[in-house]
Design brief:
globular; alpha/beta; 6-stranded mixed β-sheet
Length: 230
């Protein structure tokens, strides 16, 4: 099994209710480019982690077309919530509606002896706009990440891959509740999204630190191609 990752698909039905071309010409035909890369790369025995901002839908029912489209693509699909995934709801409801997809929430998903862990993450204290309310959510997301990592340890995972939507760090020397937890639990790889091509200048796109490989996998940063973790 190979494990891949991509983030920020920003789907909105067909025809697209929210065409992404308004954010730059490089977004033109992004859905088709992503599907082409996916089908050329991923086998049915492989797995793909989608690091949030999956669909612009506001309710689970409204996301049905986009989630079904993902389900038709090869491999196991592991979905993580992003800040724009307002359709995201209770785990049982999502599983009942889309049993052919796997949703990462407060636990881990085992791929053989490898655990996929993660949480949405949040704005970091280093951001100038960080507020008291942000601090509460930041701490809560740290708890969710640790629950996921603890689940991996309880299942004797030989390797742990972490997925976040928000970046766990922006600079080489930055530490956060997320980076501290990744180091504490011996994570080998951390993939994340949220930061797009036009915003990525000066942000960490790839970094090896403390035995962890960090990688920004937003779809437009990757040129709408999947990143191979293993």
């Amino acid at each position: 099994m190979d494990i891949y990752a991509i983030g920020d698909l920003h789907l909105s039905g067909d025809p697209a209710a929210k065409p992404m071309e308004i954010f730059g010409e490089h977004w033109q035909w992004h859905k088709e480019k992503t599907a082409s890369s996916w089908k050329e790369t991923v086998r049915e025995c492989d797995a793909v982690i989608i690091c949030g901002d999956i669909s612009w839908a506001m309710q689970l029912g409204e996301a049905e077309y986009d989630l079904n489209w993902i389900a038709t693509l090869p491999g196991r699909k592991i979905l993580l919530r992003g800040n724009h995934d307002y359709w995201w709801t209770g785990l049982q409801k999502m599983r009942q509606a889309h049993g052919d997809l796997e949703f990462l929430k407060n636990g881990c998903i085992m791929l053989g002896s490898t655990a996929i862990c993660g949480s949405r993450g949040w704005v970091l204290p280093s951001c100038t706009s960080f507020t008291v309310e942000d601090e509460k959510i930041y701490g809560r997301e740290g708890i969710r990440l640790e629950l996921s990592l603890m689940d991996a340890k309880s299942q004797d995972a030989m390797r742990i891959i972490a997925a976040l939507h928000y970046p766990p760090l922006f600079t080489e020397g930055e530490h956060s509740i997320f980076t501290d937890l990744l180091e504490k639990y011996g994570v080998t790889d951390c993939v994340f999204g949220h930061i797009h091509k036009k915003e990525s200048k000066g942000c960490i796109k790839e970094l090896d630190r403390g035995g962890i490989k960090y990688k920004l996998v937003s779809s437009d940063v990757l040129g709408f191609k999947l990143y191979k973790i293993t």
